Amino acid sequence: MHTTGVLVIYQSSYLSAVGIYTRQIYKLIPEPMQEAHQISYFKHLMLLFGLVVMGLIIGGILFLFVGTAWMGVSMEQVPAALNQPANANVSKFLNVGSTLLGFFIPALIYQRIIAPGNIWRGLGMKGAIHNRQLLLIFPITLAAMVLSGALGMLNEQIPLSESLMKQAREMEEAYRTTMLNMAQMKGIPDLLLSLVVMALAPAIFEEVLFRGALQTLFIQWTRRPWLGIVLASIIFSAVHFSYFGFLPRMALGMVLGYIFYYSQNLWLSILMHFLNNGFIVVQLYLIYKEGKSMDEAMNDNLPIWTAAIVIPILVYLFWQYRSFARTSPANA
Question: What is the 3-state secondary structure (H, E, C) of 178-209?
């Protein structure tokens, strides 16, 4: 609780101070091209990229300082200490704080700079939701999870050199170790905490940055919705640093992207993101309670041929979803 309070206080001062300085930095970014209506989307991209890098650096520094104070270890020992089961909840809170500073706050500052006004509406966080679109989120989520499983199997079939494969497996193992440690849940309170910090918080923070800010920027820049969605999804997948999960996360990013694009309401993509993450958290909890290997829940690959079945289903679901949109955006 003490750490959460520190992060809230820090967030307020960080947002105001960085907002002032980045407005000045933004004016210094060179314009390689002059866009219509005097908008340089390159400048916007560099601004957003710079804010994210700055947020990740600050978040990483705070990560080490808070971890040292909280666990009573040296900075060099923080990463190893966080992988201890006894520090699972510490790891959850620190990861949420890092994502808050690295993804969420930079997106808010970016939106505040490029379009002063209601930053929440500017990022797509609107109140009105079409009820039928809301209901369709549930079958779309299930279909997307099946597609991700099939693409996970396909991802493993992509050949790599021996050295690259070794590096990819080391990165994957580090990712799995971190996730499995954070998934240590002994009871309902731990489950509820995990749903907040591993499902809800990432859903909000990541959607605000990757769909609300980045995807919107790419669509405006390229004037091709499908291309903007693909570009944002590639970056969304890449930042997770998981080679074997690259295609599944890219597909998930595209589904989330179209949910946002066809509704212009970020809450719907946040809901799907939460459902996707929440299903995994609950699955890990049930497996842990049954005393089974946690690796079973992490290995969610499905036969590649299942993609041929689920893709037409997804297309139909999105056709229905789009028909219920309050607005009618241009064809992607």
Answer: HHHHHCCCCCHHHHHHHHHHHHHHHHHHHHHH
User: How far apart, in whole angstroms, are the C-alpha atoms of residue 57 and residue 17?
Assistant: 16
Q: Are residues 208 and 150 in the same domain?
A: yes
Cβ neighbors of 69 (< 8 A, separation 6 or more) are: none
Nearest in space to 125 (alpha carbons), one of 319, 267, 269: 267
The amino acid at residue 248 is P
Side chain identity, residue 172: E
- Exposed/middle/buried for residue 189 (C-beta within 10 Å: 0-12, 13-18, 19+): exposed
- In the numeric block, which tokens belong to residue 49? 């990229």
Q: Can you tell me the distance from the alpha carbon of 259 to that of 236, in angstroms, rounded to the nearest whole number?
A: 15
**Residue 102 sits in the same domain as residue 165:** no
What's the whole-model pTM score? 0.84
Number of structural domains in the chain? 2
Whole domain around residue 80: which residue ranges?
A: 1-122
Interatomic CA distance for residues 248 and 185, integer angstroms: 26
Three-state secondary structure call for residue 35: coil
Per residue in 291-324, pLDDT (tens digit) is: 666 666 567 788 999 999 999 999 999 999 999 8
- 252 and 161, same structural domain? yes
For 112-171, how does the pLDDT look when each residue is reduced to its tens digit (9 = 90+)?
999 878 899 999 998 788 899 999 999 999 999 999 999 999 998 888 888 888 888 888
Residue with tokens 């009105």: 128
Q: How far apart are CA 21 and CA 321, in angstroms?
A: 42
Name the DSSP letter for residue 330: P
In terms of domains, do 210 and 326 share one? yes
**Closest alpha carbon to 232 in 205, 245, 259, 213:** 213
Instruction: Give DSSP secondary structure letters for 230-284.
Output: HHHHHHHHHTT--GGGHHHHHHHHHHHHHHHHTT--HHHHHHHHHHHHHHHHHHH
Give the C-alpha separation, 127 to 124, whole Å: 9
138 & 28 share domain? no
The number of CA neighbours under 13 Å toward the Cβ of 259 is 32
